[in-house]
Amino acid sequence: MKKVYLTCLSLILFFCSCSPKISSIVNKDYQALRYDEKVEVFELNQEKPNNAEHVGTIKIRDTGFSIKCNYEIVLDQAKLEARRLGGNAIKITKHKKPNFWSTCHRLDAIILKI
Questions:
Q1: Would you tell me how many other CB atoms lie within 10 Å of the CB of residue 107?
Q2: CA distances (Å), 84 to each of 30, 91, 99, in order?
Q3: Cβ-count burial of 80 within 10 angstroms (0-12 exposed, 13-18 middle, 19+ buried)?
Q4: Residue span of the signal peptide, if any (predicted)?
Q5: Taking CA 34 as the corner, what is the angle to CA 72 and CA 46, rounded to the nearest 5 degrees?
Q6: What is the pLDDT of residues 17-69, one digit of tens each?
C-alpha cells in the first residue's frame, strides 16, 4: 500500500512541476473576468495607454522541469492570470528567450485595467 501511495504522490508532483511557475503581486482587488473575455497585450516595444490602471504584476518562470513553455503558452498563462485578477490588459516589461540555462520563455508583465 505504501508503494502505491508513493507512486501516486510522485506522479502528481511530476505532472505539477511540468508547467512554468507563475507568481503575481496584486495592488488593487477586482472581480475576476470571465475566461473568454479578451485581454489586450502590449509588447515590449509598445507603450501602455495613459488611462490604464495598474492592477498588479506577473512573473512567469521556469521550474527546471517545465516542458510546455513556448511563447504562446506562456502568454496565454499570463492572460489567464490577468483575468483571474480582474485585468483586461497586460504590458510585457521583460521577456527572456530560451537559452543554455532554460528551454522556456520567461516573462514579467504589468496587469492593467483599461
A1: 22
A2: 9, 16, 30
A3: middle
A4: 1-20
A5: 45
A6: 556 777 778 888 889 999 889 999 999 999 989 999 999 999 998 877 667 78
Q: Whose grid coordinates read 508513493?
A: 6
pLDDT at 5 over 60: no
| C-beta of residue 66 within 8 angstroms of C-beta of residue 107 | no
Q: Which domain holds residue 22?
A: 2-113
Domain count, the chain: 1
pTM: 0.77
Q: Which residue has the cell 509598445?
A: 46
Distance CA 86, CA 112 (A): 9
pLDDT at 109 over 90: yes
